[in-house]
Model the fold of this input.
Amino acid sequence: MSEHKHENGVCHCKSTVAAQSLTEMDFDRGIWSAALYNDIGRLKDLISRGHTNHLDETGYTALHYAARKNNITACELLIRADADVNAKTNGGVTPLHRAAMMGHIDVVKLLLIHRADAKIQDSDGNTAAHRAGQNGHHAVLHLLLQSDESLVNCLNNRGQTPLNITKS
Done:
């Protein structure tokens, strides 16, 4: 956009530019934004093109984004299209971590049914149970501990169990 001002036949333009980086443009056009914003039509199209497990620059898949936003329909579509339920970001975070930290119990259940590994630890040593506890999502924490009782004793890099760091 620009602002035009004419003086004595001379145009003095003040230009303002809305810039978007190539990374942002790639995200907006990719499967990640379709999953994040629950754009099911676009998601189906991108899945049909083989984009199911494409990674963004930080290692997130579309399933990470759908799980974070509690977009259960998007999660189901991606899982049916063979999305990796245990895909890890550059920091070791899985879709289960993302759903647990946000308290999305239905997505957590869906991921567990489809063999998400609740024992996976991120780069801080936290499991999805740690993330649920840190954020005060007691029902999700309970579900995860029921899915694998050994998680109750799992230590993160600070020597904490999920119950040690649970907010009341």
Observations:
- Residues 22-153 form a domain with the Serine Threonine Protein Phosphatase 5, Tetratricopeptide repeat fold (CATH 1.25.40.20).
- The chain has one domain: 22-153.
